[in-house]
Amino acid sequence: MRCHITTIFAIACIIATIQPTFALTQMCIKTRCAQTGKEPVNNPQNCGTYDIFCYGDNAYKSCTSCKTGYALKEYNTSESSCSYQTTWNNCEAESGGGEECDGTCDFCLSTFWRDVSANLGYQSRTNATCNTETCVCTHTTEYRCAAGYYGAKPSCRTIINVGTVCSGCTACPDVPDKVDYVDESYRITSDAGDNESIEKCYIDGIGTDNFIADKTGQYTVVGGKCYYSE
């Protein structure tokens, strides 16, 4: 894809200064959940009694005792906003007791990507993974940069009395000193899920030829996407 210059002035598709970004992590503490309304992101099986605790951005359910024929087994879990892992308990069949694992997990479903509240440019989802040997479902929170932004490993963390704070995504750069957009379908953007670096930002012509002008001259985006380059 290329930019076709329509005056004597040649300019780059996009010019920007790259600023370094840093992923934020914290030493999270496992606490009893207050009235947060959060549903546990894991689903331990065959608990006699259980507890629900909060860690990082999510709530977890942990067995404290088991039904007859089952025994407690500890599992690790991690949050991208936390420096260390924490643990929760599942109840698994003792030798000769309980039900055999059939290789499936109940309610083991990942969520769709959604915008992170009050953090423009960030999206998150819960990724569910079923262990077919133990029938235990584990959940992890993943983050990515939204369309129009770029970043390799964004992260978010929750700060008391502040809320969720995210880091690692940067808005795609705009054309400097822009003067006029003749075609309003013109935009600078990126594709969520394929925007780890600034080179994934592009001028989107939406399938048409788009005339753009700035203080250095005029040019046309031909045929769709014109990607950023140094």
User: How is the main sheet built?
Assistant: 4 strands, antiparallel
Number of helices: 0
Beta strand count: 19
Runs with pLDDT <50, length 5+? 1-24
Helix content: under 10%
Radius of gyration: 24 Å
Oligomer: single chain
The span between the termini is 15 Å
Run of helices and strands = EEEEEEEEEEEEEEEEEEE
Question: What strand order characterises the main sheet?
Answer: 1-18-17-14
In terms of DSSP E residues, the strand content is 35-45%
Average pLDDT, all residues: 76
Q: Give the overall shape.
A: elongated
Task: Characterise the protein shown here.
This protein has 230 residues and is mostly beta strands. The chain has no helices and 19 strands. The strands form seven sheets. Strands 1-18-17-14 form a four-stranded antiparallel β-sheet, with no helix packed on it. Strands 2-3-4 form a three-stranded antiparallel β-sheet, with no helix packed on it. The protein has a three-stranded antiparallel β-sheet with strand order 7-8-9, with no helix packed on it. The protein is elongated. The N terminus is likely disordered.
